[in-house]
Amino acid sequence: MSSEYAKQLGAKLRAIRTQQGLSLHGVEEKSQGRWKAVVVGSYERGDRAVTVQRLAELADFYGVPVQELLPGTTPGGAAEPPPKLVLDLERLAHVPVEKAGPLQRYAATIQSQRGDYNGKVLSIRQDDLRTLAVIYDQSPSVLTEQLISWGVLDADARRAVATHEEG
């Protein structure tokens, strides 16, 4: 593998990891030690070659198709990543439980899984939003509007949802 290709592959790996709001140590924690921070970091820097098998396992861990990790494959030519979906946990705490109970429980579960208890904000993925939409029996775009109206999501979330629904 050429060093340029390794660096491009590493950049893709880093982009996926950061999109998911994970640090290198967060990957190690979430994988319960299966993926060591130092190894993932060396893949991301292009210092260490990754086998096809390990790349497939890492793609599975991140919940993305392998082709998302390969250089030169930019689906839809997406130049900039869609804005992150960031829940404002401080505002969420002030939304009545009868409205936000499922979201509060879901956010608490994610925090527990990540060991992330900063209590201010929580990044979620598009998949999380789709799951919440099923729980709330609404489309992701309708749920997004509701979360924006509660002050739990920033209005930029509209763009993230619209971008994802088009693709």
Portion in beta strands? under 5%
CATH class call of the largest domain: Mainly Alpha
Q: Helicity range of the residues?
A: 55-70%
- Uncertain spans, ≥5 residues at pLDDT below 50? 76-80
Count of discrete structural domains: 2
Overall body shape: elongated
Rounded radius of gyration (Å): 17 Å
User: How many DSSP E strands?
Assistant: 2
SSE ordering: HHHHEHHEHHH
The CATH architecture name of the largest domain reads: Orthogonal Bundle
Structural class, judged by helices and strands? Answer: mainly alpha
Biggest sheet, strands in spatial order? 1-2
Average pLDDT? 84
How does this model look, in words?
The chain is mostly helical. The model is unreliable at 76-80 (pLDDT under 50). The protein has a two-stranded antiparallel ribbon with strand order 1-2. Helix content is 59%, strand content 5%. The chain folds into two domains: 1-77, lambda repressor-like DNA-binding domains (434 Repressor (Amino-terminal Domain), Orthogonal Bundle), CATH 1.10.260; 83-161, Orthogonal Bundle (Arc Repressor Mutant, subunit A), CATH 1.10.10. It starts with a helix and ends with a helix. The protein has nine helices and two strands, in the order H-H-H-H-E-H-H-E-H-H-H.
